[in-house]
Specification:
Elements (H helix, E strand, L loop, with lengths): L5 E5 L3 H9 L2 H21 L4 E8 L7 H24 L2 E6 L6 H13 L6 E9 L1 H14 L6 H5 L12 E4 L18 E4 L9 H13 L8
Parallel strand pairs: 1-2, 1-5, 2-4, 3-4, 5-6
Helix pairs in contact: 1-2, 2-3, 3-4
The structure holds farnesyl diphosphate.
Farnesyl diphosphate binds next to helix 1, helix 2, strand 2 and helix 3.
Amino acid sequence: MNPLNHVAIIMDGNGRWGLKHRNSRNEGHKAGLHTVEKIIKETIRQKIKYLTLYAFSTENWKRPKIEINYLFKLLENFLSNKLEDLHKKNIKLNIIGVKNFSKKLNKLLYLSEKKTSKNEILQINLALNYGSKFEIVNALKKMNQNNDTINEKNFKKYLQTKDIPDPEILIRTGNTKRLSNFLLWQLAYAEIFFEKKLWPDFNEKDYIKIIKKFKSIKRNFGKI
Ligand code: FPP
């Protein structure tokens, strides 16, 4: 059976779900947050150690201001209300991406990371203002500044995921088959599962089905 330490998810389809069911894209994001909570619980139940969630990409700044503000308010409320609970559950919160949000949100993010830094049941990597190409170029710049020898092992040290094993599974919901600038280096050998369901409709059963399927796959890593 394949070991499974890290699941990465592109939570796509909130907007479409919201428009279809509530006539509002933002309501879709709100519903998407419930799915986030369900999937966190199931990840712990499955004893998976890392969960990386793509919550906001560097490209998402192109959305209407009203939607961007709503998303960050949702995150702010989530952290304000649930941080204690996450901490009690021994969950570590780690942000990947560039923290250049409002003063209030930046502070909350730093605080959440600090408070949960020693927790060890599950590490949630929340990708916020994250873009993989930016991460890679930034890593190369730093490598160059340090005059470090260019090889894979050294390169990994400059990524924001330096202490995290690469994801074995990538799930993208929302019936779209692309990577959208997410973990391009780290996903080199991931098994990719494209789900037709929109993120708010995705549930524990769907997640368990993917994990089961993953465990039965013969992973060759180039061998035969
Ligand atoms: C993509 O769906 C989803 C996002 C850009 C935001 C993801 C946010 C959440 C799941 C809720 C908030 C999460 C946290 C952790 C606070 P889309 O809007 O691109 O959907 P569409 O393709 O139907 O337009």
